[in-house]
Amino acid sequence: MPMSAVIGNTEKTQNLWLAKLITAALFLVVCLSWGTTWLGIKVAVESVPPLTSAGLRFLIAFPLFLIFALVRQDPIFFPRKQTGFFVFVTLTYFSIPYYLLNYGEQHVSSGLTALLFSSMPVFILIFSSMFLKERIYTSQMVGIAIGFASLFMIIKTQGLHLGHTGIFGVAAILVAAIMHGFCYVITKQKGSAISVLTYNTLPIGVAGFLLFVSGLWLESPDLGAVTLRSWTALAYLGVIASVGGFIAYFILLKRLSPVILSFVFIIFPVFAVIFGSWYEGQPISSDLATYSAILLAGFAITKLPVEKLLSKNAKEHLG
C-alpha cells in the first residue's frame, strides 16, 4: 500500500476518534449541565421567590438565545397560523412547569426533584399512545411499573407524608413533568416543522417576562435582599444550564440517535443526587441509592422496547 494511502487512513482513523471524543464530551456536558440545574434552582430560591426566580432565569437566557438564533438565521417568530401553538408552548412548556419546579424545590431536595422529573419520558410514552396512537410494548409497561413503584418507595423513605408541605412539592414537580411530557407529544404532532431555536427563543423571552411581572405583582420580592449566591445560581441557570446545555444538546441531535440521546434523562439524575447530597450535607442512604438505581433502570427499560427490537432483528435476519 502506498505511503500516502497509509497516512490517509491514519488521518481518517484519528478524525473518527476525535469526532467520537467530541461527541462523548458534549454528552457529558449535557448530563452535567442538566444534572446541576436542580441544585442551581435550589440555591436560587433560597432568597428569590419561585415566580420571580423562574422569570429572571429566562430573562437572562433570552438575549443569548436571540443572538444564537440570529447567527444561525433561524426565524424568531412561529408561523402565523400557529399562534395558538406558540401560546400553548409558552405556557405549558416554559411558564407553568418552571414555576412549579421552583416552587417544588422550596420543599424538596434537588436530588429528589431530578429523580421525580426523570419520569417525564414515561409520560411522553403514555401521551404518545393516547394522542399519536403509538404502541406501548409489554416490556415498557413493566419498566413503567418498576419505575413508579421505586419512585413511591423513594418518596416514602425520604419521609414525605400526606399533609406535609413536602408532598405538595412532590406534586408540583410531577405536574411539571406531566406538562412537559404532554407538550413534547403535542409538539411532535403540530410543531415538527418548527426549528429547535424558533421553538425555544421567543417562548423563553415571553415566559420570562410573564413570570417576572407575575412575581413582582404576587410575590413583591425584595431584589436588594437577594444573596450573591442566589444571583450566581440564576446566572448559571440562565447562561450555562439553559443556553450552554441547549447548544450542546442541539449539536448532539445531529450526532446521535434519539434513543441514545434520550438516555440523558436517565443519567442526569445521578449527577443531581450526588451534587445535591454534597451541597445539602446529607449522605446518600443505601435505600435512596438502591431505589434510585431501580427507578432509573425501570425508566431505561421504557426506552428499549424488547419486543420491537427482537422483531426488527428477526426481520433483518430473514431478509
Give short descriptive properties of this protein.
globular; mainly alpha; 0% strand; 13 helices; 319 residues
Notes on the structure:
With 319 residues, the protein is mainly α. It is built from 13 helices and no strands. It is globular.
How would you summarize the topology of this molecule?
Blueprint lengths: L2 H42 L5 H22 L11 H22 L5 H8 L2 H12 L6 H20 L7 H26 L5 H23 L9 H25 L5 H4 L2 H17 L5 H17 L3 H13 L1
Helix pairs in contact: 1-4, 1-9, 1-11, 2-3, 2-8, 2-9, 3-7, 3-8, 4-11, 5-7, 6-12
Instruction: Output the number of helix runs.
Output: 13
* Strand fraction: under 5%
Q: What is the tally of beta strands?
A: 0
How far apart the termini lie comes to 36 Å
Radius of gyration: 21 Å
Low-confidence stretches: 3-7
Sketch the major β-sheet: none
Which class do the helix and strand fractions yield? mainly alpha
Mean pLDDT: 87
Shape category: globular
Question: Secondary-structure element sequence?
Answer: HHHHHHHHHHHHH
- How much helix is in the residues? over 70%
Integer count of domains = 1
What's the short story on this structure?
One of its GO terms (cellular component) is membrane. The protein is mainly α and 319 residues long. It has 13 helices and no strands.
